[in-house]
Target: Protein ARMADILLO REPEAT KINESIN1
Amino acid sequence: MSTTTYRNGTVPKGALKVDRPLSMNSTSTKSSASFKSKTSGHTPATGPRRKSTGSVGNSAASNKDDTSVLGRVRVAVRLRPRNAEEMAADADFGDCVELQPELKRLKLRRNNWDSDTYEFDEVLTEFASQKRVYEVVAKPVVESVLDGYNGTIMAYGQTGTGKTYTLGRLGEEDTADRGIMVRAMEDILAEITPEKDSVSVSYFQLYMESIQDLLDPANDNISIVEDPKTGDVSLPGATTVDIRDQKSFLELLRVGEAHRFAANTKLNTESSRSHAMLMVHVERSVKGRDSAISSENGSTSHTAKSFKPPVVRKIKLVVVDLAGSERIDKSGSEAHTLEEAKSINLSLSALGKCINALAENSAHVPVRDSKLTRLLRDSFGGTARTSLVITIGPSPRHRGETASTIMFGQRAMKVENMLKIKEEFDYKSLSRRLEIQLDKQIAEHERQQKGFKDEIERIAQEAQIRIAEAEKGYAEALESERLQYQKDYIDAISKLEEQWAANKQKHENEKAKSSMLSASMEVAELKKKFENETISRKAAEEEIDNLKNQLAQWKRSEAAGNSEILKLRKMLEDEECQKAKLEEEITVLQSQLLQISFEADETRRNLDRGDTVKLPGTLDSPIPPFMLQHLGDSGAGEKASMANLFEQVGLQKILSLLESEDADVQIHAVKVVANLAAEEANQERIVKAGGLKSLLTLLRSSNDETIHRVAAGAIANLAMNETNQELIMSHGGISLLSVTASKAEDPQTLRMVAGAIANLCGNEKLQPKLRGEGGVKALLGMVKCRHPDVLSQVARGIANFAKCESRAYTQGNKTGKSLLIEDGTLPWIVQNANNEASPIRRHIELALCHLAQHEVNAKDMIKGGALWELVRISRDCSRDDIRTLAYRTLTSSPSFQAELKRLRIDYG
Model:
């Protein structure tokens, strides 16, 4: 929770913070006294602060808080000893700086007889130990942090002057080499109480204006969040780790340093290319600062006085290892390292501008020019105690960079911060205390409730004992009364019986005669009723026997009828199977008849050829004899002689024959082109010479079906090449093939056309255009021929089309329903999935498996009966690869699995 405090000391309504200033006259802890003694020489205790309209810590105009403490930025300078390179290169030159640590002065030589003198808070020679550096630079800040003030420790200087050594040295080999980070955490952990206090750490770097988490490299774009009321800066996206001991902190630093960017330059073999920041968050409980909770009427109740919210201090220590400033010409940076150097120099320049503005009480401080200045807005001109160590080298070659570093420190010494203690009520701790007290109250209440219940049970038991005694006395009295009444009742009964016996004897004689007569009449009437009941019972039993006989006869009739129905159904199924077999036999016979007819026509045409033909007007001489021999030859050696014809006549002359007015010449020429196109080596030359256009023109202009058949075969051969497929589509070839298929009657012509379209179906880039120009419809229309060769080519085209669609689904290029299903091919596919012809069945099975690969087709396939064919293929297919593909498709499809489960078919 951040503090909402203004420079005039007021707190906005509803704030829960207590801003306790560090009083210079107050008696505090030992560490506080030590802190004041070390800073009294450079931090004024009284006196008004200079008014500033903007600062890194607060951009709004502010007045001095009467209870706040002014704290100037403390600056120490540390000289690095000469390295091996400088000892060799500058052996004849003296150092460019002269230190006077006892006077806290530094002289920067202009030349051998003139120099400039600068004063700092501390001047550390090249022989100063890491412990000495920590005590004069960082320890006062750490002690003030433990007293409740925010603190900043920062190192600034040229590349290679020892900033990272001063701050981040781990001291694994020699503990005397430990840097400020390790020593500061040792002091903090030694002072806090683990049971009441907590320490957490964030470690990140500013690399090329991007904040990256050094503890989680994947978190490489952390946003800066500013409180709109207080202006406090935080990084909620950075990883925060709780620290319990020094060992875990050292491991955290190792992880962070391993992820920090560094590069080899002329000035430093491991030059830091980013600004690293270690942010330590400390929460400390404050003893004796609890505040009472007032009741609603303004008085403080007894219960409220016993539960006072404890006060906690939330302090932040920031240790900043700035990347070194450098000149490009000296560092030798280039390529990506050059871009890093530019980014470093820009952020350091922005920081220098802000410090200049604060030192000069400028009306505007350019805080937002860089993320570095936004992160350090509380360190310069804010509420944090800031200590800066500037590192310099002795080499006279880098005097300009050394002078720039010294001037940066001199300007920073003019910046004053308004130090404040930030305290707040620890309502979480109070809540825990209240919960404990509430648990005690609940336990006491439960104990009293249990005692009350025990008392009630005791009283109830006593009442039950008394009630039992009363009931026992009442029962005894009631029993005695009952016995008395029973005795009286028996006596009265005996008297009545004696009187009744006397009266009975008196009347027996009078009624003896009349009773004998009436008894005989009653006996006769009862006998008559018994006989009637016997007759009725026999009639009922006979009727029941009749009904049982009728029921048995009806059951026998029903069984005979069911048997007859089953026989009729079986006969009907046999008739349907017989009918289907006859239809298939008829289809096969028709196909064989068509094929025999086609072969007879071909034989007759070959026998009729042999006349001498002359070229049309495009050629000046008749066809040579050897060309006529090739044009008329359709025997087994045709393919072997095509190469000789190709070389002797030339491709252009052969193609020119396609434009002849003589139909026979055109037929022979197109056959030659078709045979040439069958060889892959000739296809490119035929297309370049315009043979593809000539073949498409023949399809469009000629009415001869033989030309159509041979031209379609040539196009089918050319369509086996992917480049030619695109040319065929771009010249409207699919439309011409579709029109040819609709006009053709010869099965072989349809076979050639279907083969050409089937080859085009294998190109997934052309599928939308092929379907849009009627290619799928043309394939589906050719199945009316019923010739096995035509059906085989149609099945191959559908399988190619389905395979391309399946590949498109896998690559994520297609999401809608299959174009084959939309064009109505699914019923034909299902009908021919078990075709007797092996090529047809194999292609159809492949098409079904590829269609089933995508879930969007499952519903239509289930509705169209394709599911049963897939089950059959997965079990009965002769090819292992198709059977495995069908089984994998069925087991991976949720829709198919749900339908099989609904039909109670255990599959997969």
